[in-house]
Each structure stands twice: as C-alpha cells, then as structure tokens.
Predict the 3D structure of the following.
Amino acid sequence: MMPFDVRQLEVFQAVMEFRSVSRAAQALGVTQPAVSSLIQRLERQLGIVLFNRAKQRLEPTAEALMLIEPVGRALESIGRIRSALSDIQGAETGLLTVAAHPTSGISWLPPLVAAFQASRPNAHIRLITRSSEWLRENAASYASDITIFEAPIETDSVVVRRYKFRCVAVLPPGHPLCGHEVITPALAAGQPFIAMSRWQTTHHLVSRAFVHGGHRWNSVIECELFSTALLLVEHGAGISVVEPVSASGFARSGKVELRRFEPEIRYEVAISHPKGRRMPLIAEKFIIEFDKYIEKYIEK
C-alpha cells in the first residue's frame, strides 16, 4: 500500500468542501499553487482523476465521492492522535480547533486567541467561523475541539458551558437619549432603530418589548451581525440593542455610548465538544481563559 501524506488528505477534504482551489487554500492558510500541487500529486499516486474543472468550480469525480468518507474518518483519527500528543506535552503545544459563530469569531475571540497563543508559542490555533445553525447541526461530527454557538442550545454534542448575557442599548455619542440611564421602548419609540435579522432571537425579543408596551418600533435597517449594528450606530444611522461584549469594545474607544435597556433582552451562548471524544487539555485551558474573559459581561 502506497504511503499518503496527511497534508494531501487535508487538501483533498478542503477542496471537496469548497469546490474551489482558492477557497480551500484560504481555509488551510496555504497558497493556491500548493493546493493544486498536492492534489495533482495525490492523483498521480492513486492513478485516478479526482476533480473535473467546470467553469469556475471543481466538480468531484465518482472516485472522489467514494474516497471522501474514508478520508474524513482517517483525518478524524489523525486528529485524535494529535490531540493525545498535545495532552502528553502539557497542553502548551499542539493544534486547537475552535469553531465559533460570527459574533464570537469576529468580535470576542481575536484578542483572547492572540493572548492565548502568545503564552503558548508552540501552539497552533485554528479559528473557524460558521453560522450557529450550521454549528448546531454539524458540531457532533465536525473536527473541532470546541464549538461556540448561540441559542437555541440544541445539539448532539456535549454542552460544557452556558452563558447568559443581558443586552444593552447602544447610542451614537451625543444622542438625545444619552441623558437617560435606562432606555425603554417608551423612550425609544419612533427613533430610527438598527434591528437584527428576523431569523435571530434578538429581533423578536426587541420587537415584542415594543409591541407589548404599545410603542412604535421604527426599524429602519436590519443586519445579521451585532458588529454591523454597532458600526451603523457609530455612523449615526440609529440606535440599537446588542450583546454587551462587542458593545463594550466599541464603547471603550468612544465610538458609541451604552445604556441599560428595560425590559431585559437576553442573549445566550454555549460551548460544546463532540461526544465520544476526550477534550484536549489545551481546549480545557482555553475554556478557562474564555470564562475569565467574559465573566464581567455574564448576567448575574
């Protein structure tokens, strides 16, 4: 049996997922020529064609489709071996894969990951961002050590942490409502409002707060990310209600002002890891650092 390079298998899996050399290269942090070269070398070793180019996409051949499942199992086994070695070395080195929903992946984790890696120069951290819906559906089988996603907390993985945050009102500096310590639907009635997308729980909780009080919710813009809402508030497009971790980062730089919002709008997040797999020590240490990082924002 001919030997296989693990990197070849990882590249093959990535190209199968993205159907694109450029996107696979970006996901793996390598160059496009490196991806093409590894695929070509794998095809020569196997003596088969794995992909056909169709317009701007790579279409897998029947042989590639037959290979993807055993390759996935092999890489998962290799991942377990790597995790075991990392544990033996005291969780100061090795690979940590964190799959996170956009809010945590874009706004929360970058400073934490930077500090965590700086204290472990030999560690390699892979930060992957996917929607919470995708993470809930795939966390149990996806090759990540820990997964961070927002409510509803329904998953086949083992949930190891739950966090509850109280959302805050966000105002442009100098806005007339900045004179109030607490913002209510009565005060915000008719004000241009930056709302989250309708598929998000926060959208419906805020809408309900206005409707139940008999106040007009003047939603002028809807967006998918809290960070986008914060940028829109910064540029004077309106006011909003967002989770407190991202909001505090903007407030510290003076870009927005924060106020308590009544009634309470709750935002929930969970951390999970796949069933049947022992959590690596480096992942356990990362969760401890994550707890410290967001402790001051958690609803008491």
